[in-house]
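Worked example 2:
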Amino acid sequence: MGIKKVKANTPGRREATFDDFKDITKSIPEKRLLIPKKKRGGRNSSGKITVRHQGGGAKRHIRLVDFKRNKHDIEAKVAGIEYDPNRGSRLALLHYADGEKRYIIAPVDLKLGDKVMSSDKLIEIKTGNALPLQHIPAGMPVCCVELEPGRGAKIARSAGNVVYVMGVEGKYAQLKMPSGEIRQVKKECLATVGQASNPDHRHISLGKAGRSRHLGIRPTVRGTAMNPVDHPHGGGEGNQSIGLKHPKTIWGKPALGVKTRRKSRSDRLIISRRSKRQR
C-alpha cells in the first residue's frame, strides 16, 4: 500500500491523504461471505446512548473472517486481496482444495496465487501459514494470535500490527506485544506467520470532519464548552478552566491520568509491562 496526496484545491483537501489501493486485486466481495451490518448509533436495546460519538456513516456489509483457522491440513490458494471497510488491514480470499471459500486477515507480502495452510502440527514456516506457537522459531513475526486455544485470533489483527515470538518455556510461549509488553500465552495457540497487512494505514490523515462522518464518527465536544447541566466542566463566562480538584468524565467519574484497567486473571501471565513512553 502507498499513501496518495491530492492538490490542495480546498482547505479540507490540503492536509488530507488517501490510500492508493494498489495492493487490491479483487474489488467485488464474495457474496456468500457477507452479512448486513445494522446501524445502532451507539444505542442499546432500550434506545439509550451507551457509546457516544457514533452514528451515520456509509452503508457497509460485514465480511465473515475466519479467525479460528480450524480447517487444518488442507491447502488453500489466495484468490484475491480485498478491501474491508470495517478494518484497516486487507482480507485475503482463500479457495480451499475441497471447494470452500474463506476470508483471512492478509499478512504483508501475501500475493495472489500463493498457497497457504493451517495446521495444529509443524508445517512450513512461511507467510500466511497458521500453526501453534510451540512450532514457531524465536524472533519470528506473527499476527492474528489466539489467547486461548481454539477460541480464535484476538491479538494483532489490525493494520500493521505484529507480535514477536520470544521463545517457548514449559506450557507457555513468550510474546512481545505491539505495546512492548511481554506476555505468556499457551503454546498450543495458533498464530499466522507474518505482519498484518497495510502498515501505512496509521499515516492516513482524514483532513476534514466530513470524512469522519463517512466513517460513522460523530463530533466530540469539549466538556468546558458545555453548560453545567450537561457536563461537570461546563459553565462559566468566556474561556474557563476545569475549575475542579480533579478532572471528571461526563458522568462525574475521575478522568485524565486515572488508571482504569481492571485486574484480570491473565495478569499473572504478564512478564513485563509496557513502558510509559509507549502508552
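The longest strand covers residues 76-82. The mean pLDDT is 93.
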